[in-house]
Amino acid sequence: MDLSDNTIERICKIFGYLHALEKKGVDFVSSKDLAKMVGATEYTIRKDISFLGGPGYTRKGYEVRSFKKELGQRFQLTEKRKACIIGLGRLGTALLDYENFQEDGFEIVAGFDCNVNKIERIRTSIDVFAVSRLAEIVDARNIELGIIAVPAESAQEIADQLAAAGVKGILNFSPVKISVPEGIVHVDMDFTNALRFIAARFVMMKK
Amino acid sequence: MDLSDNTIERICKIFGYLHALEKKGVDFVSSKDLAKMVGATEYTIRKDISFLGGPGYTRKGYEVRSFKKELGQRFQLTEKRKACIIGLGRLGTALLDYENFQEDGFEIVAGFDCNVNKIERIRTSIDVFAVSRLAEIVDARNIELGIIAVPAESAQEIADQLAAAGVKGILNFSPVKISVPEGIVHVDMDFTNALRFIAARFVMMKK
DNA sequence: ATCTTCTAGTGAATTAATTCACAAATAATA
DNA sequence: TATTATTTGTGAATTAATTCACTAGAAGAT
Ligand SMILES: NC(=O)c1ccc[n+]([C@@H]2O[C@H](COP(=O)([O-])OP(=O)(O)OC[C@H]3O[C@@H](n4cnc5c(N)ncnc54)[C@H](O)[C@@H]3O)[C@@H](O)[C@H]2O)c1
Ligand SMILES: NC(=O)c1ccc[n+]([C@@H]2O[C@H](COP(=O)([O-])OP(=O)(O)OC[C@H]3O[C@@H](n4cnc5c(N)ncnc54)[C@H](O)[C@@H]3O)[C@@H](O)[C@H]2O)c1
Q1: Would the CB atoms of B16 and A196 count as touching at under 8 Å?
Q2: All residues at 6 or more sequence positions from A66 whose CB lies less than 8 Å from its CB, including other chains
C-alpha cells in the first residue's frame, strides 16, 4: 500500500501534534481533535489512520503515546536524522541555531558556505566548512538531508552537489524550483509563493 | 467558478515563473514547459488555464507578458501589498531585509516585537515598533498581510491581534497551527514538518 | 441492568482532480 | 502549395480523494 502525499503530510502533522500532546501529558485523542489540528475532516483522518492499521479505542480515541511511537517507527521519525545547511547568510544562520530541529528529531551537523571569510566569522556551536568539502563531510558524517539556503542562482548547482554526495532528501528555501534525480525527495519552500497564494486566495474569496 | 487550492497554488507558481521568463526576455511558453516548472502535467496546466480563459496560441503557447499581466490583474498580484512582521528574532530579522519580497510585489512596511530594547538595537531601513502598537499601525498603513515569527507560545495570541487589527492574510512561521476567523486566509509554514515529510516520504519509497 | 452517547472502522457513494483523446489551428518545412 | 509537426482547448473517461452511512463496542448516565 502506498500512501498519497496528502496522507503523508497529514500524518506528519499528526505526529507533531501527538508530540505536543505527549508533553502536555494527554493520554487519548480523538479523530475529531486530530482533524481540527491538521485541517481535515474526521473521516479523512480515520481513513488515513486505517491505512496504518492504527489501534483506536471506542469512545476514547487513540492512545497518544503508543500511537506516536508506532508512527515514529513506521516512518522512522524518532531516530535522529542528520542534516546540513548550505548557504550561511541571514536565513541559513537563523536555521543553524534553531534548537527546535533538535527536539523534533533532526540534527544539524554541518554548515557550508563558499565565502571563507564568513565561515571564520560565524559564531555557532555547529561545525562550518567551505562548500568545497561538501561531499567529503556528507559522507563522513552520514548526512541524510540537505537544506539549501543559497541565492537562487546557485541553488540548482548545490542541489546537484548534494545529490552527488548522496543525501536522500533536500529542503530548498531558494525561490527556484530545483530538479533532483529520481529517488531523492525534495520540497521547495518558497515564501513569496506562499504570500502570493494568500493574496490570490483572498481575492478569489471575494467573488 | 471557484478554483481549487491546488489550482491557485499552481497558478501562483506559474506567475512566478512567468515573471522570471519576462526578465529573461522570453516571449512564449508552452503548457509543457510550465508543467515542468510547477511539477504537474501539461494537461493539468491547460485545464487550470482554461478556467481562466487564458489565450494560448497554437503551436506557440502562451504569450509571457500578456499572460502574466492577465494573471496579475485577475489575482491582484501586481499591485504592491503591504505586509508586516511580528517577532524580530533570528528569522524575523532575516525576513525583514529580504529584498526579493519587494520585487515580487510585497512590501514589508513594519516590524513588531515585544522586546523594546531589541527594537532600539535593530538596524534596518524598515520601521519597527512595540507590538502594543500593532493595531494602530496596521490601520494607519493599510497593512493587509501579517507574518508571524514569534515563538510558538505567542503565535495564536498574535494571530488574534492581527485578525482584530484587520489584516486579510497571515503567514505563520511558528510551529503551531493557528486558527483564524472565517474570511482570513492563512498558511502555516512549518519547517520541521517539511523535514518530516521528506523523511517519511523516503522511508515510504523504499517499500 | 438498561439506555444513551460517543467514537472507531470501513464499504459504498460521492465528489474532485487528473489524464486521455482528439479536433482545430497554425508555424515550419519540403 | 501541400505536408508535417506542434500545441492549445476541452468533453469524456479515468483515477483519486473525500465524505457518507452505518455497524460495533464501550463508557457513562439513569
Ligand atoms: N532572508 C530571507 O528572509 C529569505 C526569505 C525567503 C527566501 N530566502 C532565500 O533563501 C536563500 C538565502 O537567503 P539569504 O537572505 O540568507 O541570503 P544571503 O545572501 O544572506 O546568504 C546567502 C549565503 O549563501 C552563500 N553562497 C552563495 N553562493 C554559494 C554557493 N555556491 N555555495 C555555498 N554558499 C554560497 C553566500 O556566501 C551567503 O553567505 C536565497 O535563495 C533567498 O532567496 C531568504
Ligand atoms: N530560527 C529559525 O530558523 C526558525 C526555523 C523554523 C521556525 N522558526 C520559528 O519562527 C519563530 C521565530 O523563531 P526565531 O528563531 O526567530 O526566534 P527568536 O527567539 O530568535 O525570536 C523571537 C522574537 O519574537 C519576540 N517575541 C516574543 N513574544 C512576542 C510577542 N508576544 N509579541 C511580539 N514579539 C514577541 C522576541 O522578543 C524575539 O525577538 C518561532 O516560532 C520558531 O519556532 C524559526
Answers
A1: yes
A2: A55
| pLDDT digit string, tens, across residues B144-182 | 999 999 999 999 999 999 999 999 999 999 999 999 999
Q: The pTM is what?
A: 0.96
Near strand C (CB < 7 A), which residues? A 30-32, 42-43, 46-47, 49-50, 54-62; B 4-7, 40-41, 43-44, 47, 57-60
CATH class of the domain whose range is B5-72:
mainly alpha
At B36, which helix (H) or strand (E)? helix B31-38
* Distance of CA B76 from the midpoint of ligand 2 (Å): 30
Q: How far is the CA of B182 from the C1' of C15 (A)?
A: 23
The answer to whether A199 contacts B145, with C-beta atoms less than 8 Å apart, is yes
A5-72 matches A81-193 in fold:
no
Does the C-beta of B95 come closer than 6 Å to ligand 1? yes
Closest to A20 (Cα-Cα) out of A35, A41, A40, A34: A34
* Domain regions of chain B by residue span: 5-72, 81-193
Q: Rounded CA gap, A197 and A130, in Å?
A: 36
With a 6 A CB cut-off, is A159 part of the ligand 1 pocket? no
Q: How confident is the model at residue A206 (pLDDT cuts 50, 70, 90)?
A: confident
pLDDT tens readout for residues B26-59: 999 999 999 999 999 999 999 999 999 878 999 9
Domain A81-193 falls under CATH 3.40.50.11740 = no
